[in-house]
Amino acid sequence: MENATRTELVCNHTDAWDWVYTIQPAYMSIICFLGVIGNSFVLCVFCLQKRHNSVADIYLSNLAAADLLMVSCLPFWVATIIDRFHWRFGEPMCQLISVIIGMNYYCSVLFLTLVSVDRYLALTRPLSQGRERRTLWARGICFGIWIAGILFSFPAILFRSVQFFPHLGIDACYVAYPHEGWRLRHNMTISIVGFLIPVPIVSFCSYHITKVIWSSQKMRKGSRGSVERKAAYLVLVVLAVFVLCWLPYQILMVLDTLDYYEVISGCTWAYVLDIGNQLATYLGYSNSSLNPFLYIIVGKHFQQRAREVFRLVLCRRKQQWRKSGHSNEMGNKTGSLTFSKGIKLHLPALLQLTNEHAVSH
């Protein structure tokens, strides 16, 4: 948001920003719609399945939760962009939405790193630890990642506020750093935590996962190996899509750092950086809506679990329908029995009344 405001004040390329105002709300609305439906479905499958969750399931379900939180925040920015970046939801919501969106990036990349490490260990050291101990550790690690994501996004609470810009006539949800050094720290944190540390780890794990998949004859023949291979394929695809979605944003962060040191400068570069930052950011957000469909399309194991959950829900519905139908049937029988008993009870009195009436005549 701060980049968008800076460009409008300095360069004021109205044609390009009119295009942004037109395209972004529709694009973000699609991301929000697909992301809410897809990630809600993934969480339902993981929560309702009868099987015990594996370590990878725990990491992927937490990833789906982070994605669901993020896409749930996008309607606020859709309304803001339609209103030319005029923020109408108050300063607390400005800070909260910014924290959740910032937290999503850090949590997503860390959860995906853990998934790749877990698949690497499952394929290369399948008997290293017991399942219960590993799942317990996985839940603790996930809790730590959520805390780390909040801490990394904490500057949004410190420096983001709603400010009035008289040149634009709007109240904007804006990041105002005390000095430009904080901008550099922000870029460095995103680059180091979100790229330089996880990418080598993910690359190492992905290389060995691919190597094991193609070289292990036992894995191709065994049923257990087939499950691990399918899970590894899913992890590789999810990782590849994540890199494709977020790599442009990382490149923009490097260019923004060069702009800070005036290696590149000028209105043209500021314009390219600001428009590019908008496009790269929302391309990265689309990753949160793509992941659930990758599970459905690529994840054969996930498809099987989804079918099991669907059958489970369908069976429960049938049982409820049978119970309700049985209760209605019992109610009808009870009513009929009461009616018949009433007739039997009143029949002697009616006969007696009829006989007395006949005698009187």
Descriptive account of the structure:
By secondary structure, the chain is mainly alpha-helical. It has one domain (2-298): Rhodopsin 7-helix transmembrane proteins (Rhopdopsin 7-helix transmembrane proteins). The chain contains twelve helices and two strands, in the order ααααααββαααααα. The chain has helices at residues 2-10, 14-48, 55-82, 91-124, 131-152, 155-159, 181-196, 198-215, 217-221, 223-260, 267-298, 300-360, and strands at 160-165, 170-175. It has a two-stranded antiparallel ribbon. The chain is globular and about 65 Å long. One of its GO terms (biological process) is positive regulation of cytosolic calcium ion concentration. GO terms for molecular function: bradykinin receptor activity; C-C chemokine binding; C-C chemokine receptor activity. The chain crosses the membrane at residues 26-48, 60-82, 94-115, 136-159, 188-210, 231-249. Receptor for bradykinin. It is associated with G proteins that activate a phosphatidylinositol-calcium second messenger system. It is found in: Cell membrane.
In CATH, the architecture is Up-down Bundle
- The radius of gyration computed from the alpha-carbon positions, rounded to a whole number of angstroms, is 30 Å
Q: Report, as a whole number of angstroms, the end-to-end distance.
A: 103 Å
Low-pLDDT sequence parts: 1-10, 336-361
Family: Belongs to the G-protein coupled receptor 1 family.
Keywords: Cell membrane, Disulfide bond, G-protein coupled receptor, Glycoprotein, Lipoprotein, Membrane, Palmitate, Phosphoprotein, Receptor, Transducer, Transmembrane, Transmembrane helix
InterPro entries: Brdyknn_2_rcpt (IPR001504), Brdyknn_rcpt (IPR000496), CCR1-9-like (IPR050119), GPCR_Rhodpsn (IPR000276), GPCR_Rhodpsn_7TM (IPR017452)
Domain G-protein coupled receptors family 1 profile: 38-295
